[in-house]
Amino acid sequence: MGEEGGEDPRSESRFRFWRDAPGWVQALTAVLALLGVGGVAGGVAHSVASAHRSSHKTTGASRSSVRWHGSIAINSSGIELDDVPPVTGASTSTFTNSGSGYLLSGNGSYAVWQGSSAPTYRQCHTLVQTQGSTSTVQLTSSLDLCVRTGAGRTAYVKITSLSSDGSTAQAQATIWNQ
User: What is the CA radius of gyration of the chain?
Assistant: First the structure.
């Protein structure tokens, strides 16, 4: 049945094709295999990056997925963070600028984030759940807030600038799905 060494001659012929294949075929096969594995991770990384670049990216239903990320203005007309994109002057608002540099609660609550970097969804959600309030907060260009919207969504709002009279605050907002 087998040759003198006891090996099945058919097993050698199965590997001969690969061993005798040109180097470029072997290299191309290896690259395609890596792309198949790396493509999934690359797709996930691209999705996360796209959500942060988009001015109004809507994503899946995961609680910690980003619903929207972008710039907002907080003035006396208020801002509703449950709308995509957030809108000013809606019939309801998450919060409002008093017009003199103070944040007033609307249908949301908030807690000041004290961390040295932006919070994760879980950190922000836990902070606003445990320490969120509706009390007045003075707006400053370095204020970071974790927010719970009227619809129960968690958001992170970073005030980036304040007008000289305090009537308008510019901010970056990340709003996660419920």
Answer: 27
